[in-house]
Design brief:
It catalyses: (6R)-5,10-methylene-5,6,7,8-tetrahydrofolate + 3-methyl-2-oxobutanoate + H2O = 2-dehydropantoate + (6S)-5,6,7,8-tetrahydrofolate. It holds the Pfam family Pantoate_transf. Catalyzes the reversible reaction in which hydroxymethyl group from 5,10-methylenetetrahydrofolate is transferred onto alpha-ketoisovalerate to form ketopantoate. The active site is at 181 (proton acceptor). The protein is α/β, with parallel strands linked by helices. The chain has two domains: 4-235, Phosphoenolpyruvate-binding domains (TIM Barrel, Alpha-Beta Barrel), CATH 3.20.20; 239-274, no CATH class. Helices cover 43% and strands 14% of the residues. It has helices at 4-12, 25-33, 45-48, 60-73, 92-105, 120-128, 144-147, 157-172, 185-194, 215-219, 237-252, 267-274, and strands at residues 17-21, 38-41, 78-82, 110-114, 133-138, 177-181, 199-202, 210-213. The protein starts with a helix and ends with a helix. The chain binds 3-methyl-2-oxobutanoic acid (KIV) and sodium ion. Sodium ion binds next to loops.
Length: 275
């Protein structure tokens, strides 16, 4: 299993870090099989799997349940789990107990939390307490209502400067890595250069230390809206839909189950049964 030290070393040696989200055991198995460097149990869970239209309704219980499933599917891969909406803002006692549940009960190897500014002292406290923390800056979906929509961050000078400052603060607070979402690739390249912890980009160009994408987007599974920064490597919905259609059709026509799918009993038992 890789560790936070492995990721630091990968950055130093310019070996790119490949990260994908997972929410259940079978997807986690695919990722482990593909040797991804880290799995993210993202709160994108809310949209991708639970059918909500944002990450806001996702609870800590949801994250615990899904992290446990991912852990069972990928026991040898480093797992980062998102602390969901408003689970790390109230006070340190509740933040610690929430992080503890993800680490102890669910089996996460690290937690991710969104934001700079007020979140920086929290990152500091968590890392001091021995919880590996991944930061997340740029587009931070938990604050989308405040940001006024899903859009590219850090395009203007002031915004770009403050993103760079936040990234440095995240590093100084002790985070082991940083997700940078939806920022111009030049800014992502600069931030990657300026800080010594690995920067994992999503919609942030090719110069970050690694990339993260949502599992369902990568394989084209049921995603209704695919952002510009996503590359879809397959379209499994095109395989799933005809398969399900065919099954329903065959049940109706008694074409399924066939002989080979059935169980039978011995003739004499049958005779006894009918009397
Ligand atoms: O929840 C998530 O999937 C994420 C990634 C998009 C970085 O936070
Ligand atoms: Na997330």
């Amino acid at each position: 299993m890789k560790t936070t030290t492995s990721f630091k070393k990968m950055k130093e040696e310019k070996e790119k870090i490949a990260m994908v989200t997972a929410y259940d055991a079978p997807s986690a198995r695919h990722l482990e099989q593909a040797d991804v460097d880290m799995i993210l149990v993202g709160d994108s869970l809310g949209m991708v799997v639970l059918g909500y239209d944002s990450t806001i309704p996702v609870t800590l219980d949801d994250m615990v349940l899904h992290t446990r499933a991912v852990k069972r599917g990928a026991p040898h891969t480093f797992i980062v789990t998102d602390l969901p909406y408003l689970t790390y803002h109230a006070d340190l006692v509740s933040t610690f107990s929430n992080a503890k549940r993800l680490m102890q009960e669910a089996g996460a190897n690290a937690v991710k939390l969104e934001g700079g500014g007020d979140v920086i002292p929290t990152i500091n406290k968590l890392t001091e307490a021995g919880v590996p923390v991944m930061g997340h800056l740029g587009l931070t979906p938990q604050s989308v209502a405040v940001m006024g929509g899903y859009r590219v961050q850090g395009k203007e000078l002031d915004a770009a400067k403050s993103l760079l400052e936040d990234a440095k603060a995240v590093e100084d607070a002790g985070a082991f890595a940083l997700v940078l979402e939806c920022v111009p690739d030049q800014l992502a390249a600069l931030i990657t250069e300026e800080i010594s912890i690995p920067v994992i980009g999503i919609g942030a160009g090719v110069d970050t230390d690694g990339q993260v994408l949502v599992y369902h987007d990568v394989i084209g599974y049921g995603s209704t809206h695919v952002p510009k920064f996503v590359k879809t490597y397959a379209n499994v919905s095109n395989i799933i839909q005809p398969a399900i259609n065919q099954y329903v059709h065959e049940v109706k026509r008694m074409e399924f189950p066939e002989e080979k799918h059935r169980f039978t009993m011995k003739e004499e038992v049958l005779v006894g049964l009918y009397g």
